[in-house]
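User: My collaborator sent over this chain with a note saying "see what the structure looks like." That's all I know about it. Can you take a look?
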Amino acid sequence: MYIDTHVHLNADQYEEDIDEVIQRAQEAGVDKMVVVGFDRKTILKAMELTEQHAFIYAVVGWHPVDAIDCTEKDLEWIESLAAHPKVVGIGETGLDYHWEKSPKDVQQEVFRKQIRLAQKVNLPIIIHNRDATADVVRILKEEEAEKTGGIMHCFGGSVETANECINMNFMISLGGPVTFKNAKAPKQVATEISLDYLLIETDAPYLAPHPYRGKRNEPAWVTLVAEEIARLKEVSVEEVARRTTANALRVFNIT
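Assistant: Without extra context I'll predict from the sequence alone. Here is the result:
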């Protein structure tokens, strides 16, 4: 059994064939999926999917790229959705300094507000970090994010940063990039970080693993992430599946 801990089945890329995508995932042994909504449209779709499928759960939050569009009403709405039994986390939130749509100070403020929201509703927080590691770690510490803990989504940082996040009660989630030939940092993290702190994800439709790199990703391919971690750790893929599934169930408080 596998759990894809971060997938965007709510993306437009699946509009034509979502039922087939879900079926392929189930046939591959992906028994549960966590669909992440990060703006008004994708949150609504994530909630819809949780109602349609017993094995789909939702995470709701506001993406840092679009932080400039986030209103207090949006945050109140996210807080109200957090009471839903199948909403299992707040996010994805964090910082993204690659794109310039939202100024850094706006991103940081919306990030802080969502950490506080997660603490208020007692749900884990799912962190997006692109080109902003120092500020992400600093804000997590300043906001005492260890109170809820959460997940460093699609982690691409160093072993040292991974350990810093683990010490703040965060899990390290690896996706398709760990399978890329020259992806030194994710491979090193997969090798050196204990399975006690690892999760697997696809971030589909983005970041498809090798040998599908560049194609539309899908949750069935989370098995390829598990296989690469197993190869790097010199353990069975069954062991990776078992341990990462147990970790995901614990973090998201899913029974």
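A starting point for your reply to your collaborator: The CA atoms of residues 112 and 139 lie 7 Å apart.
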